[in-house]
Amino acid sequence: MRREDERRARILLSRLAEPYDERVQQVVAEHGVVETVGCAVRDGRAPGGADLGRLVARLARAEAVDDERIAGRLGARILVPGDPEWPDGLDQLEHPPWCLWATGPGDLAALADRSVAVVGARASTAYGDHVTAGLCVDLVARGFTVVSGAAFGIDATAHRATLAAEGSTVAVLAGGVDVPYPRANTGLIDRIRRTGVLVSETPPGGAPARMRFLARNRIIAGVARGTVVVEAGLRSGARSTLKHARELGRPVMAVPGSVESLMSQGTHAEIRLGAELVTDGAEVAELVGRIGDDLAPVKQGESRAADGLTEDLRRVWQWLRPRSSSAVDDVMARSGLTLRETLGALRELERAGLAEELLDGWQRRPVGAR
Amino acid sequence: MRREDERRARILLSRLAEPYDERVQQVVAEHGVVETVGCAVRDGRAPGGADLGRLVARLARAEAVDDERIAGRLGARILVPGDPEWPDGLDQLEHPPWCLWATGPGDLAALADRSVAVVGARASTAYGDHVTAGLCVDLVARGFTVVSGAAFGIDATAHRATLAAEGSTVAVLAGGVDVPYPRANTGLIDRIRRTGVLVSETPPGGAPARMRFLARNRIIAGVARGTVVVEAGLRSGARSTLKHARELGRPVMAVPGSVESLMSQGTHAEIRLGAELVTDGAEVAELVGRIGDDLAPVKQGESRAADGLTEDLRRVWQWLRPRSSSAVDDVMARSGLTLRETLGALRELERAGLAEELLDGWQRRPVGAR
C-alpha cells in the first residue's frame, strides 16, 4: 500500500512542482513525498505548515489529470524509485526526479547499467561529428548503450551513429516523451522510441522550457555510468552534464581538439578542471569499466595498491588491461618509458601481485588471484 | 683554491665520462669530483679502489687538451655549479652535467630564471608549427625566454618564432657548441649564438651521438622553469624532456590536438599521465609563474588554502589572476558554473581572504594583504 501511495504522490507531485524547486525538494527531503503531497491536498500547506505557494494553486488541475491512463494511451510507463526499471543511483542526484516517463522497447535499468553519455555542442564541427560517430560505433561494439539528449549537433550524431551500428540508445528529452524536440529531429526521436528508450521527467504534453533543458542534463548524467563531452563551447550546456556526473562520482571525460576551435574550448577547460582526456572508445570503456569495478570491494584494494606506486609503475600499470594482455611494445609506447624501464616496471608489478605475464603479453592480475 | 680545483676537475671529467655513466656518477656522489678525478690521475683507480675502466684509458688524451684555451678561441665560457651564470636548480637533475659550455651574448642564469621549454616532434604538422609559433610569440610578450633543442620541427619553429618576435632563446645542443646539428639548421643556430645562448655539456668538437640527444633533453628540462610539448608521437624523445621536468618538480604541460593526429598521441598520453593541458601562452605563463610563486613561502600558504576549497570554489579561484582583475562573466564562462554559483563562490572566496572585488572585476587577493 505504502509503495502505491508513494507512486501516486510522486506522479501527482510531478504535475505540481518542477524538480529544481528547492523549497519543495527541502520539504520532501524532510517529510517524504507521501506526507508532503497529502498535507498539500488536505491542508493546502506543507507538513511543517510552510507555504507551498504555486504548488497548491496547481492542485485542482493536477488532480483532474489521470496520468496512468495517459501513460497507457501513449504506450509509456511511469517509473518511480524502487521500480526494477529505475536506473541505479539516479536518486543520488542532488534533485532527483519525482518520477520518469519512459517509452520504447528497452529496459532502462538494464541499458543504463552499461552505458555512456555522449554529449556536446549543438554547433558541432565536422571534426566533432566525426569523432562522435567513431566513439559511438566503438562503444556499441563493446556492448555499451549510448545516452544523449537528442539535440542538434553532437547529441544527434551520437544517437544516429549508435543506431547505424545497431546499438542501443537512450534519449532524455526536456519536454514530454510525446513532444519531440527539436522538431527537425522528430524522425530520429521516433526511431529511438521504436528501438531504444525515450525518457523524460516532464509529464506528457510538457513544453521543453529553458530550465527543463538544464534540468534534463542531470538525468543524462544520472542514467549513464559516465559522461563524455566531445565538443563544447565555454558556455555550453553540455558542461553542466559533466558537472552532474562529477557530483555523482561517475567518470567525467572530454575529447581534446584543436586549440583554435571554439568548440574545443569547453572540453579543454573541463580537462584542465580534472575531466579525463579520452581519445577513443577503448579509453572511455576502460574508465567507465574501472569505476564499475571500483564499486566492488576487492578492486578498490587494487586501485588503492596502484595509488601507492611510483610514477613509472603507475605509468605502466595504467596501460595494462584486466582481462586481456598487452604486448610489451605497446605498453612501452603508451607509457613513454624505455624498454628497460618498462620491463623493470612490469617485473616489479608482478612481484607486487599487480600484473602477470601471459604467453602473448602482460595483463593486470585478476583480483581473485591475490 | 678549492673552487679552482673543482672547476678543473669538472672540465677534465667532461672529457673522460659521459654524464649518464651511472658508475662514475656514483663515485662522484660519494667522493666528490676533485677526489674522484685526483685519484684517477694519481692511481688510475676510483677513490674507493673501484675500477673506472675506460675513464682511465682516456686520461692521457684528455689531459693533453687545454679546454680553457679552446673556450677562449671559440668565444665560449665554461660554467660549473656555483658560477653566477649556472642555471638555478640544474644540479637537482638525477645526473647533473659535469659542466656546461655556453656561447652567445645572453646570461644563461638570468634567461633561465623566466623561461619555458617549448619542444616537440621533428615531424611536426602545420597545426603544431602554427600553435608553436603563436605560443612563443605570446611567451616573448610576457617576458619569457624560450628554451629548445634546435631540432627539426617544433624545436626549430619555437626558436624561429621567438627570434621573429625579438625574444630571447636558448638552444641546448647534443654535440659541441661548435658542431651545429642538424646541419640544415646551421643558419638558425648561428642566429641563436649571436642573440641568445647556445649551450651544451658536450665539449667542443663532440659529435651529436644518439645517447647525447636523450641526455640533452634533461638539460632543456633543467634550464627551463617549465616544459611544454606541443606535438609528439607516442615514442617521441620530447616526452623524455617532460619526464625530466616532472622529476624536477617543474610544470609539465602539453598542447592537445586532433585525436586523429599521430603527432598529438604523445601529448594526449602525457595529459592522461598528469601533464597540464595548455592551449595558449597565458595558461603556460600562469602555471610557470605559479610554481615560481610557490617557491616563495607566503604563496605556498595561498596554494594550501586553495587545496582545501570545495570544487566550485576551486573552479572559480583557479580562473582569478593575482595581479589583474577578471570580469564575473569571464570567470563564469571559464568555470562552467551558473551566474548565481559564480557570484556565491566569489563572495565565499572573499570571506576566506582569497579573492577581492575591484572596480572592474575580481582578482586573487594579494598575499601581503592577508
Automatic annotation (TrEMBL), chains A, B:
Gene3D superfamilies given in the database record: 3.40.50.450, Winged helix-like DNA-binding domain superfamily/Winged helix DNA-binding domain (1.10.10.10)
GO terms classed as biological process: DNA-mediated transformation
InterPro entries documented for this protein: DprA, DrpA_SLOG, WH-like_DNA-bd_sf
Domain of life where this protein originates: Bacteria
Domain Smf/DprA SLOG as annotated: residue spans: 78-287
Pfam families membership: DNA_processg_A
SUPFAM superfamilies linked: MCP/YpsA-like
UniProt similarity note: Belongs to the DprA/Smf family.
The protein's name: Smf/DprA SLOG domain-containing protein
Organism from which the protein derives: Serinicoccus chungangensis
